[in-house]
Amino acid sequence: MGRSPARPTGPRGGGRRGSARMVLVLLALGVVLVTAGAAVAYWRDGRPPVTGDQVADVADALDAAGTPTPSARVSTSPSPSPSSSPSAVAVPATGPGTFVTARADGTTVGTGNRVRRYKVLVEEGIDVRPSAAAAEIADVLADRRGWTRDGATSFRLVGSGSYDFVVKIATPGTVDRICGAAGLRTRGEVNCSVGTDVVVNLKRWVLGSPEFDGPIHEYRALIVNHEVGHRIGHGHETCPGAGRPAPAMMQQIKGLKGCVANAWPYGRDGVYLGGPSVP
Questions:
Q1: What are the pLDDT digits (tens) for 28-42?
Q2: Is residue 150 assigned to a domain?
Q3: In this structure, is residue 37 part of a structural domain?
């Protein structure tokens, strides 16, 4: 009787199992590489919101969104200072995106022939009364240290009818949506100026900035003066010299460069507190 055929042993049977293991290893390695690639893409294209002094300038705020058009500017303001007094006003992450208009018409302030009519709107559901916000903004624009000191500009708060610009106070999420529609990435942290809208981040309105050493109402004056300055045609400026007031049109969050924090375009003596233009 002949011998039974020998069963395959060693390399052939082990080769099949080895090949299967190799396929599994390659598949696992592929998953790791894809995951790593996704993580890199996330860091490059969808980084988490920046805070504090990372919010440095327009380029940082825009990231991959590109350079803003002249009618769409980011105004950078950071997270609150640890020394800031806690506020009783809550700052929800987002809101409904609908607004209440302050129904308070004001008198014209300033002696300039160019009267700029503006409205104040506050997002629904936040703990800021439209009438109170409008009164505070009107006081800033009426101040003789403000833009009316140029002798050409006047302002008038209106509750209805035609207007030149709108000041909107909104939650960080709503600011992101409004500014994002113009290609600006505010990331829940900063204000922006888009078209006829001055969009104020509630976080900045309530908590201020660590770069501004002063009371919150002064920081709000800086927000208003800076953004309205853009609306009336002013660009960014930088520090004119050590120890001098920082221009209201300076992006003071980038660092004061030796200047002293300041909220106003003009001094009490009527001298313009400007500095060299920033391209």
A1: 444 333 333 332 222
A2: yes
A3: no
